[in-house]
Amino acid sequence: MQESKENLSITSAPEGKTEAIIAYITVIGLIIAFVMNNEKKYPFAKYHIKQSLGMVVVGLVLVLISLIPVLGWIIYLLGLVFMIYMWIMGLIHAVNGRMEPVPILGDRFEEWFKNF
Question: Where is the chain membrane-spanning (predicted)?
Answer without folding.
Answer: 20-37, 49-68, 74-95
